[in-house]
Predict the 3D structure of the following.
Amino acid sequence: MDGPERNAPSSPPRDFSPSVTSFDARGPSPVSENPVVAPLVHQSGVQNASSPRDLAARSESARRRPRSKGAFSHPPPRAMGLLTIIKKVKAKEKEVRILMVGLDNAGKTTIVKRVNGEDIGTISPTLGFNIKTMDYKGYRLNIWDVGGQKTLRSYWRNYYEATDGMVWVVDSADVRRLRDCKDELRKLLGEEKLAGASLLIFANKQDIPGALTKEEIAAVLELETLGKRHWRIESCSAFTGEGLLEGFDWCVGDIGARIYMHD
Ligand code: G3D
């Protein structure tokens, strides 16, 4: 697909500080089995947060402590829940985990490369997943770009854990597969682990004549029925760069407001 925009400069849009770390870990192996992935998961703080041994020791010492008379006359100080602990650890690191998903050929890898300032002239299909880490407006984004081929979709669930935001990329010129696109999106939104994640939909490839508008895509995907989910649809082109920052701005802002503002 060689259009004139193909030669558009691939410098990163403003506000992105390119690739602090970049992993290319191809092959559909589950997250927990991949040694390259493990440090990133630890960085997000989730695995350090629960420390079951600490919690057990604390509850044991509380059990042994003699209770003074009237110990129950005042409510005990509110225990710090796991969610609060996770939020605090995340707040320190300001890490945000974003999952790029969508059908194959939608433009996921091109979008990630484009915002990271990489050459978009050489894109090969994502057979497993790529992780890019970049700094954006005070946040460290860990972007997981997962292969969208039919045979790989069953592996998506290996990447849901601790996801803060999903970016669902649609090829706006691929009208034939919109139904498939809608079905896969619905399946994804039914996943419990993704229940709280913000959803950004990129109506990509707007540079192609005849591409559907974001309103038309929103109607096909029935986005109005999403209820409480935080979502937004943005028209964009990975070739021209149009719409990409607006989309990421919303996504990171929405995640930040949910995770970091309510401590
Ligand atoms: P994927 O990661 O979702 O599978 P890719 O998709 O990023 O690999 O992109 C698939 C094809 O779409 C690539 O073309 C890529 O250049 C093209 N593409 C991605 N974004 C755009 C866009 O905004 N406009 C246009 N016109 N094309 C886009 P090839 O030819 O390499 O298969």
